[in-house]
Structure formats: structure tokens, C-alpha cells
Design brief:
Elements (H helix, E strand, L loop, with lengths): L10 E9 L5 E8 L4 H11 L11 E3 L11 E6 L7 H4 L3 E3 L11 H7 L12 H12 L3 H6 L3 E6 L5 E7 L2 H14 L8 E4 L5 H9 L4 E4 L5 H10 L2 E2 L1
Length: about 240
């Protein structure tokens, strides 16, 4: 007798950019779980420093009504006059599910790009932080089926859930939250980012880029994550 078990889907996503009136240019392949591909593409391009605001995105091609890509490909439409050199940007790098910046010398650049963070004096009750992991887990629909997927959730300072994402890669889950902030013009506001797993440098870097002042992780953070939060005036719990 065989027992059937559901597993988390992992497939490649081809992210492309097309300036108005031009042909699409390939930017990256990302191994991900195929949900919220529009948010993933937007967040990835923002945290890579390619896009800078929601107004840089005119729309998406190859995305259905639920935000999933058709054929594992998404094209982000940007204004013709957007000052980015797509030919120079065409790096053809491959991002796996566990690491989005592996092998890339971006630490100093990340500090510079994150310098715009809103260092407001947030006050959060310890009891609020303690409730966030369970509040996130209750909304993880894919995790309930597979038990094998990461999540990131955006909360208000008083613990109200605003958005949640799931992905086989924890950095992808964060990029989906960043994409949500980007498309809804909510960057650099006072929110809490709750993540499953540990908070490494890359998670902190992405949160800092989006101006999220507080990060809460289920597991212990890395040394570089702690150092980065100290340098940028962020709270890490």
C-alpha cells in the first residue's frame, strides 16, 4: 500500500524586462514556487536595484489574473525613458532556491542602497512579536499541504496581518512581500517583516531596501544580519 504525499512545486521563472516600444530582454532565471510571480518579479528587480519605485512598472506580460506566470515566464513592462541599460544588465545569472546573491559581491552596494531606510522610533510590545509566527503559520495554505515551504508575512506594528507569501526559497518569499509594497506604493513605511527560518544577511538587505524597520525570524539570525541591522538602525527579533 502506497501513501501519496504532496510536495512543494519548484520550477524556473524567466524574468524579462521590456521597455515600451522595444523587445523583451532577459534578466534572470529564478527557481521558485509558481505563485505570485508578478510580485516576485517586481520585488526581485527592486532589490537588485534595477527598479526604484512602483511607477517604474507599467504592467506585466505573461501573468494570469491570480498573478501566476503562463509558461514560467514573466515580462515586466517599464517606461521607454527609464534610465536603465538593459544591454549592460543582461547578465544571464541563475538564482537557485536557497540563495539569491551567492557569489555576487554586493554587500557594500547593499549598504549604500539601503541608506534610505526610515529610521523611525517604532514601539512594539514583546507580546505582539511572540504572536506573529503562529499568525503567519495559520495562513500558510501551501505549508499545510506540503510541510515544505518558506513564508514571509507583513504585519502592522500592532500585529495586524497585511500580506503573506510562500515560496520554496525564503528570499523569494521576501521578494514577493517587497513586490507587494512596491506595487502598492507602501515602501519605507513602519511594518514588521516576519520570516520563517533564519534571518540571514540577504533577508535583512531586502527588508532594508524596502524600508522595513523591523524583522522577526523564527530561527536565530546570522552574525552578518545582526551587524547589518545595527549599522542600518533596524530592529531584529
Amino acid at each position: 500500500m502506497e501513501d501519496m504525499d504532496q510536495v512543494t512545486i519548484e520550477e524556473p521563472l524567466d524574468i524579462m524586462i521590456r521597455k515600451a516600444g522595444s523587445v523583451p530582454v532577459h534578466i534572470a532565471y529564478i527557481m521558485r514556487t509558481p505563485v505570485m510571480d508578478n510580485l516576485l518579479a517586481a520585488g526581485f528587480l527592486f532589490t537588485e536595484g534595477i527598479l526604484h519605485s512602483g511607477s517604474d512598472i507599467l504592467g506585466f506580460e505573461g501573468i494570469d489574473a491570480n498573478g501566476a506566470s503562463k509558461g514560467n515566464k514573466v515580462t515586466v513592462l517599464v517606461p521607454e525613458g527609464l534610465p536603465i541599460d538593459l544591454a549592460e544588465m543582461q547578465r544571464n545569472f541563475f538564482v537557485n532556491s536557497s540563495c539569491g546573491v551567492c557569489g555576487k559581491a554586493i554587500i557594500n552596494d547593499a549598504y549604500l542602497r539601503a541608506s534610505r531606510i526610515n529610521r523611525s522610533k517604532c514601539t512594539i510590545l514583546p507580546g505582539t512579536l511572540m504572536k506573529l509566527p503562529d499568525a503567519m503559520k495559520e495562513r500558510q495554505s501551501i505549508f499545510m499541504k506540503t510541510g515544505g515551504i518558506h513564508a514571509a508575512a507583513l504585519f502592522s506594528l500592532d500585529g495586524a496581518l497585511i500580506a503573506i507569501s510562500e515560496d520554496i526559497g525564503r528570499h523569494n518569499a521576501v521578494d514577493k512581500i517587497v513586490g507587494y509594497l512596491l506595487l502598492n506604493e507602501l515602501l519605507h513605511k513602519d511594518f514588521i517583516l516576519q520570516v520563517s527560518g533564519r534571518a540571514g544577511f540577504e533577508i535583512v538587505q531586502k527588508a532594508a531596501m524596502a524600508g522595513i524597520p523591523v524583522i522577526s525570524s523564527v530561527s536565530a539570525p546570522s552574525s552578518l544580519a545582526v551587524e547589518t541591522c545595527k549599522a542600518l538602525g533596524m530592529t531584529l527579533a
